Amino acid sequence: MADDLSPMPDDWQRALAVVAHPDDLEYGAAAAIATWTDAGREIVYLLATRGEAGIDGMPPEEAAPVREREQRAGAEVVGVSTVEFLDHRDGVIEYGTALRRDIAAAIRRHRPELVITLNHRDTWFGVAWNTPDHVAVGRATLDAAGDAGNRWIFTDLVDEGLAPWNGVRWVAVAGSERPTHAVEVSAGVDRAVASLAEHRAYITALSDDDPDEYARTFVEQAVSANKARFGDRQSVAFELFGR
Ligand SMILES: [Zn+2]
């Protein structure tokens, strides 16, 4: 399977990244985000929750603002200044039309050509069970790319002034066990490390390692994982669905 990943498309200007929790984009995809914003592309983050159930020793009402702050800081490092939260409940996000509608509304507002999300499959590489939040948000995002373009789905959004946007050309799934495409990210690695390290309260609760070292170890391993499949380059790989 040498060099079997195709280069990610680069003929686009706007992307919307939709994930369940603060930190989901920082565990890998942020290196690609940094590379793309360097090239002048506009990327918006949309989070289904504030990650309020993510820190065992911190009750949700305290964790939500901490994690929101950490997410905004992490986004800023990789050139993303717009971060929106849908305020679904962390840990119990329900896949369904309410979630699809919220994501479709964001797609209509931001009119991206590329939508990015995180692994929507049952497992991580057949090894670890995925969380229901990731599965729900990943699937709803893949669905909402179509919903956003159909004026007869969620007609109340049209009433609110959100015209259909049928311009999503691809949905790219990060962390997929079946990647098809990749983007070279060596120039973005240091900022991806800094971006993950911004999730300091979260990482400190998770690991005894220094947050900066923890972030560097994780990101460098992640961007090197597909070297043999992409010209020995540091990359972020995606499973790309065209539309
Ligand atoms: Zn997550």
From TrEMBL:
InterPro entries with a match to the protein in the record: GlcNAc_PI_deacetylase-related (IPR003737), LmbE-like_dom_sf (IPR024078)
GO MF entry, a single one: hydrolase activity, acting on carbon-nitrogen (but not peptide) bonds, in linear amides
Residues in coiled coil: none
Keywords: Zinc
GO biological processes: glycoside metabolic process
Record protein name field: GlcNAc-PI de-N-acetylase
Organism for this UniProt entry: Wenjunlia tyrosinilytica
